Amino acid sequence: MTRQFTGEKLLLATHNKGKLEEMTHLLIPYAVTVVSAGEMNLPEPEETEDTFVGNARIKAHAAAQATGLPSLSDDSGITIDALNGAPGVYTADWAETDDGRDFMMAMTRAHEELEAVNAPCPRSAQFRCTLVLAWPDGHDEVFEGVMPGQLIWPIRGEYGFGYDPMFQPDGLDLTCAQMIPAEKHKISHRGQAVRKFVEACFSG
Ligand code: IMP
Hints:
CATH topology: Maf protein
Bound molecules: inosinic acid
Number of helices: 5
Strand content: 15-25%
Mean pLDDT: 95
CATH architecture: Alpha-Beta Complex
Structural class: alpha/beta
Distance between the termini: 12 Å
Low-confidence stretches: none
């Protein structure tokens, strides 16, 4: 039986601005005060696991222990079929530079690796999101969402974050960066996972 969320405050255990905006927006309809890890000055724990759920658990439990609040983390990324699922849990690492994250560089790498293996089009890929809600007593609940699509080149669009400009969801001619946030949330991996979370934990 899924444990219900009964508190008033929920800590969003992420320092990623794009994820934070999306999660905050998705939680607006629910009676919950959202607090961010940044507002609480929480350090970013090292993500040492090789699965999305493993890394999401690290982030959620670290935040719940540090604050005493139920804490919701997001570990997400893109899996590219022709690259055997890469970059997967290393999605953010592909953007790392000495001066912060550079997603143009990360998308260019994805495109170049696909070219190097002569991957046929459509170049199928999935955005994946694992949410973990952890309580200070160590209990947790896990929720997942997947959005299938293809990687396109050149990139298109100005909205969103991360790899959105090169990801075209199945059945659409637009990339995620050409969709207004509400349209992306209807189908996105994060939208699906947040809806599962609220259905399971806010149902009363
Ligand atoms: P992590 O979960 O902190 O390891 O980072 C996951 C990475 O996946 C982020 O840095 C984003 O670039 C990428 N990512 C996750 N979700 C999305 C999305 O909805 N759009 C674009 N990129 C995403």
